[in-house]
Amino acid sequence: MSVRIVSLFPDLLGTYGDGGNAVILAQRLRWRDIDCELLTVTADETVPNSADIYLLGGGEDGPQSAAAARLIQQRSLHRAVENGATVFAVCAGMQILGESFPDMRGNTTEGLGLLDCQTLRVEKPRAVGELLTKATEVSLAGRNIALGPLSGFENHAGRTRLGSAASPLATVEVGEGNGDGHEGIVQGKVVATYLHGPVFARNPDFADAILSMTVGDLSPINDEESLTLRSVRIEAARRHELTPKPTLRQRLHWRKK
Amino acid sequence: MAKPSPTPFARFRTAAAVAVGRMVAALSKKFRVGTGSVIGGRAALIIDPHLLAHLTRARDVVIVSATNGKTTTTRLLAAAIGADQPVISNWLGANMTPGVVAALGPSSPFATAVLEVDERWLPRVLKEINVSHGDSSPLRRGVVLLNLSRDQLDRTQEVRHLAEAWRKAFSQNQPTFVVANADDPLVTYAALTANNVVWVSTGMQWTADASGCPSCAGRISFSETHWSCSNCDLQRPTPSISLTDDGIYAEQNYSISIPLPGRVNRMNATFAFAAARQFSIDAERAIHAMEQVEEVAGRYRTATFAGQTVRLLLAKNPAGWHEALNLLERPDTPAIIGINSRIADGHDPSWLWDVDFEQLKGRYVIATGERRHDLAVRLHYAEVEHEVVEHFADCVRIAGQHLESTDITIDVVSNYTAFQDQLAQLGGLV
Fold first, then answer.
1. Beta-sheet pairing, B335-338 with B365-368
2. What's the pLDDT tens digit per position in B276-329?
3. Interface pTM (ipTM) of the complex?
4. What is the mean pLDDT of residues B351-358?
5. So what's the pLDDT on residue B109?
6. Comparing C-alpha atoms, which of B204, B278, B294, B286 is closest to residue B248?
7. What is the mean pLDDT of residues B73-94?
8. β-strand A127-133 against A151-156: which pairing, if any?
9. Whole-prediction pTM value?
């Protein structure tokens, strides 16, 4: 059996480098001699409903609404989820899977309803910077998997509120995440996050956890460079390396104190 | 109606602003804080907030803006117009208002200004230079628009917002002419509010940021030579000037052979040519002048370093990397790639995954810069043989060990601040 991975609408949801997640998942299977097929489906094509893993990435406000409208109209992703497929979504991709999200004018727009969450526009600045979670354990397809801290970069205006059917993926250590101290969502085999980077580049165990829902246990592979990157970025987030530097005025003010 | 001449006080304030700006710049340079042009410009703008308007009230101005190719096109256009008349330009790439006034301050008040302007600052600069420019004024205000694509997503606006802002700017402050890229749907959409547009076609390699129509919710479909929206009437305008395999076609063919490498620079030269024609520069003279430009603010610099010949290339975003990877030396030579993520680079290098590094397979790549580990993981998944090295001199030395003969040039491709660091090690700007 070949694992079928669909990269959904990279032409609409491909702005933030999340296409890398598809490359990484496919490569991690190939390196273990597991057959896999990577399908790229653009917005003018029909979404297949028989694939194993569907990936959605971040995108701009306008294209995000267009992607949601197409997926609601086609309902292929809904059917795939009913059939037991895994869905992994990032940022704008996560927002459209919820009940509703704000469009580019701030109007509430209908989402796919595959996640019990709502994304709202809030009176807070856009969340931009390194995002780091505390060590986390996720329950995926009936198995508990320890993932350690998750590292990535966030860049979003909306904040996401979870309903009772959804669980958070992790708790935030540095950054904003969903906006309530939590980061990401897990609901059945639908997993979503605000982490870019792409997230699987920095968190190889997370990539394998997603794959394991389809293929079961995976043998270890050489992740030395990913683990180096991971520790460098976790360090950087804890040092607030990319957090905006204080202005001269603020620094003088502190010195007086 | 043209604005009345400035009062003696206004003239004094402008002169004082320029003098103070130069003094601050000189001090900054002396104490090695920086090159001084931006801080000098800032100081000058405190004294005269409308300094840009005052410094452009007697001269023609042409602005070059885009995501990629601004600095090179500005340099080529300054050369082309400079073949015929005095020009002044912010050729070091300080492309926001302070950098622009710093460049203009010391110049003759009548020299034509050829200005690289940051794409986000274009509306502000256009408004400012039109203040002193009445309808009856013979002064020209030209704009050259090359392309718009994703760049530094954590700090710049998404490209569609930029296209909207440009559009509004042209309708509020009509330029005398706009030279615009007919192959780029975002640029076309933005330029359509201008009254006088010269459409230029150079082919477009990177269309990934333009598949959604900027005007409606439709999609842009691209064919070999055309694009159009599936839903509204936005489509590729008919160009009057094009880049062909034989040269630049503008009613007749002009052959062009510039020392700057690659198709991307012939594209830049085509836009510069189109803008120079608006200044009635003789075509042959314009081309000849552009053929004298060998290096642009350190880009394409070839130098000897750590015992090897190296060439510096700059690439700042996926579209730029697409062009840069096509410029590399023959496929079996090693390459050094440097990635930083300071403010000028953008803090998020996720775009590394939008670059087709898979095409480097077969080369030995040395990953350097502050985000070398991000690059290493990208190369790992692309199955490109590589090594992570911190210091530039070590990179060059190790690349040298993978060369078959020492007369081969080692290409170094880096994003903005990594490039600046390497350029400084090669002796900086001369």
1. parallel
2. 999 999 999 999 999 999 989 899 999 999 999 999 999 988 888 988 998 897
3. 0.94
4. 94
5. 87
6. B286
7. 92
8. antiparallel
9. 0.85
**Identity at B252, one-letter amino acid code:** Q
The two tokens of residue B386 are 């590589």
Would you state the structure tokens that stand for residue B410, as one six-digit string?
A: 């080692």
Residue B150 forms contact with A (CB below 8 Å): yes
Tell whether the model's pLDDT for residue B338 goes beyond 50: yes
What average pLDDT does this structure show over A77-106? Answer: 95
Q: Buried b vs exposed e over A52-63: b needs ≥16 C-beta within 10 Å?
A: bbbbbbbbbbbb
Rounded to whole angstroms, how far apart are CA atoms B41 and B44? 5
CA distances from A167 to A188, A192, A221, B165, B364 (A): 9, 10, 30, 40, 45
Quick check: B348 and A196 CB within 8 A? Answer: yes
Which residue did the predictor score with more confidence, B265 or B34? Answer: B265
Report d(CA A194, CA B302) in Å as an integer.
42
Q: What is the DSSP letter of B266?
A: H
Distance CA A119, CA A113 (A): 12
Cα within 13 Å of Cα(B430), Cβ side = 9
Long-range contacts formed by A186-189: CB under 8 A, 24+ apart = A186/A138, A186/A139, A186/A140, A187/A114, A187/A115, A187/A116, A188/A81, A189/A81, A189/A84, A189/A85, A189/A86, A189/A87, A189/A140, A189/A141, A189/A213
The pLDDT score that the predictor gives to residue B36 is 66
Q: ω into residue A198 within 30 of 0, thus cis?
A: yes
| Contact (CB<8Å) B350/A60 | no
Residue B367 and residue B413 in contact, taking contact as beta carbons nearer than 8 Å: no
Each residue of A185-208: pLDDT tens digit?
999 999 999 999 999 999 999 999
Confidence of residue A255 (pLDDT cuts 50, 70, 90): low
* Best to test chain B binding among A7, A11, A222, A227 (most B CBs inside 10 Å): A11
Say yes or no for a CB contact (<8 Å) between B347 and A128. Answer: yes
Q: Which chain A residue has its CA at the smallest distance from B153's CA?
A: A16
Element at A110 (helix H, strand E): strand A108-110
Cβ burial of B254 (10 Å; 0-12, 13-18, 19+) is middle
Q: Residue B39: enclosing H or E segment and its boundaries?
A: helix B37-47
Sheet holding A108-110, edge to edge: A108-110, A100-102, A117-120, A159-162
Which of A108-112, A251-255, B103-107, B149-153 shows the lowest mean pLDDT across its residues? A251-255
Q: What are phi and psi of B149, to 5 degrees?
A: -150, 175
CB B76 within 8 A of CB B268: yes
Q: Does B42 touch chain A (CB under 8 A)?
A: no
Inspect the interface and report whether the beta carbons of B348 and A24 lie closer than 8 Å.
no
User: Would you state the structure tokens that stand for residue B280, as one six-digit string?
Assistant: 């009635």
Angle among Cα B80, B81, B84 to the nearest 5 degrees reads 105
